[in-house]
Design a protein that fits this description.
Blueprint: H1 14-26, H2 33-51, H3 64-79, E1 83-86, E2 89-99, E3 103-112, E4 116-118, E5 124-126, E6 133-142, E7 145-153
């Protein structure tokens, strides 16, 4: 078993390493290293949505249950002949609210930035922008690095 450190998201190729770095730089003023880990996982997640490669969600989530919301959205898009052409997740803030041996809980505020879909006939259509959402994100340590174990709407 290898050591799990903040920033260790498991096996990553050079492109995903660049995404991770950019996520850390562009994150919402994150001071906790685990928020940088979440930025890296969000970069992988964005790549999954743009590529439609549902199997890559295993690099983000601890199991299928935790990935269910993303899996449902990807399948819905596929059934309608849509594929994301670009996705921007804008994180406004992130902070650790709890640490344990198994992982950390983060208080995260983010929103979907400029994002578009490509239709089956190749046209692009912008998606509506959403408002900020506060979530509690649980990061768990696994043999493959940090993964998202749960996401739930946080109480205001």
């Amino acid at each position: 078993m290898r050591a799990n450190r903040p920033g260790d998201t498991g096996p990553m190729d050079a492109l995903m390493g660049l995404f991770w770095l950019l996520a850390g730089i562009l994150g919402g003023g994150d001071e906790d290293p685990e928020c940088l880990v979440l930025g890296g996982l969000d970069a992988v997640r964005a790549q999954v949505f743009v590529s439609g490669d549902e199997a890559r969600l295993r690099d983000v989530y601890v199991d299928e249950r935790a990935a269910r919301a993303d899996t449902d959205v990807l399948r819905s898009y596929r059934e309608r002949g849509l594929l994301l052409a670009g996705m921007v997740l804008v994180r406004e803030s992130c902070r650790v609210t709890d640490r344990s041996q198994k992982g950390v809980t983060l208080d995260v505020v983010d929103h979907l930035g400029p994002t578009s879909v490509r239709t089956a006939d190749g046209r692009r259509r912008g998606l509506p922008r959403d408002g900020s959402t506060r979530r509690a994100v649980v990061l768990e340590r696994t043999d493959d690095g940090w993964r998202v174990g749960a996401v739930r709407r946080a109480l205001a």
